[in-house]
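Troubleshooting: if your tokenizer reports a length mismatch, compare against these two reference records.
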Amino acid sequence: PNSHGFNLGVVIPFGKRVAFGFSMFLPVGYVSSLSMGNVYEPNYVIYENTTNTVSVLTGLSIEPVQGFSFGIGARSLGDLTSTVYSNTTFGEEGNPNEPNIQMTSQVGQKIAPIAGALLNFIAFSNSLKDLKLGMSYRHEIDINTDVTLNNDVTTAFDSGISLENTYQLNLSSSLNFVPTEYTLGVSYIFADKVLASMDVNYALWSHFISPGAYVEVADSSGGSLGEPSLTENPAAYFSDTINPKFGLEYRFNRIHGGTTLDYLDIAMRGGYAFLKSPVPNQDEEATYFLDSDKNIFSLGLGFKFKDKKDILKDSLSVDLHIQLHQLIPNYIEKSTDSLSDSSGSTSEGLILNTGATISYNY
């Protein structure tokens, strides 16, 4: 799915060793977008599962001693719970009157803790000031959507006899799942020109829940409607993944301007990541999740400048990036007893991601 949005953030320092940060993602055109696909038909579950809702990040960073800092924070997403009441009366000919419908909705909140630490080896030796080691933890989070429909149905006969029954439909789904992640990374600056970084990410996709709608339909007599085998989503059986990432940044010589420009710094960046698909082989599974291992290539440019006329009291930075996801072809051939109408599908393609960031130091 296409996704557009803005990320707005601010960092507030308290002295030289403490800082508080706040960031909010705002989708364009909607507050929240949820997609509950049919898990038995071909669908790109990982990409359909991306977070398309308002998201808030907060964090506090502390540097107790020179060269070592740590931070704690949280990410917040909203849950949606709705209840719909409907009252419908049928005449003897079976024609319904206009139903009376009432709906109530509540937006809850899901919070996931985040923590990290950064070690600059200047704490041990000034000659190692360009070597840094970082680690981070992010707890899993998802959005749960629950909708309950209560429909009171009354059938009125000309004889004065009426029959009443209540039907209840419960629809629930777990969406926008982000797994628990542990990341360890290292970076080094060579000759004040080239920044090289590498990190390894461990993602606990085994906690993933099938995102399709879980549907229950029952009447007031205690019976149930629909096919019982389809009222529960099948297990996903995702696997945990280990994902390596690499990055390089080259810093050009600082450019000093004339009457208006104090200085201009330019940096060129490139990176590569391999993301292992957590989705198991779908040939014999009840689900029909399309996914592939991915090669991810990225390029970026960064500009940082300061003017001489103090229109800006400090430096302004503009960063541009472009990222290409290459889905390695993965063919799925379903068995003859599959619940899908499709006997085979291939997961492949290219996905383009672009963005720009403007930041101001104060």
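Reference record two:
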Amino acid sequence: MHTKLDPDDDLEIPEFDFTNAIRPGRIDCKSGGKTEICLEGTVEYQLRLLPSTKVIGRFISTLDAWPAIIAAAKSGRSPRTLSLDAIGRGGERWHMAAGPFLVRSAELNNGGPHPNGTWPDEDDRPDTSLLDWSKAVIGRRARKPGEKTEIFIDGAVGYALRLIPSNKVLARFESTLDAWPVIIATVEGGRSPRTLSLDWVAADGFTGSISAGPRLERWARHSNGEPNPYSDRAALPSRHVAETSGVAG
């Protein structure tokens, strides 16, 4: 079906000058201009410590939170220990941002310069026309066969392999590199992965779970240098779709 539109003689379309237009997706922010983030239903914002959840600042507006976040980071406190939350009328808590991303956002929203400078023009972008994109792999980091991966938790002085739900500690490690083979050996020895949890341990004895269950086993094997079971998409089994045929009455 085709619809034919008759021209409207009374409709006048003005000519626009797009030479001074800003490309879509860019925000024209004046130098030093501050940005306020408002969440509907929020009565206050709280700056919280991780992982203790201690509140170190309360604000009516995020405009008051930005300089406090920046000052906390500059005072020597690790950005990874900071979290900004929104508090609702009924006491609900919504997490907004945390870690280095929170500090960068606070600096930018407080009027600081954009971390990447000015927006690049298309003429300033590198020429990629000669690149062979057929050999490109999206979203994957090149890793040598057998290469092991160490995971660091900021503030951790050690790591522990714990039983669930008894909380009995099976082993302690100074590095996650030492934990991976023990986790694999424990599972291959007959213990269910669902009963294992790898925790990080702080200097004051506070602990937190890094991963647990079957995901911990897969993580340990991959970080210990074993091949990623999902790296070769072609090796995955094909899906079979059942086909049905109807008989017309």
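Descriptive notes for reference record two:
- Residues 1-5, 233-249 have pLDDT under 50 and may be disordered.
- Residues 36 and 62 are 6 Å apart (CA to CA).
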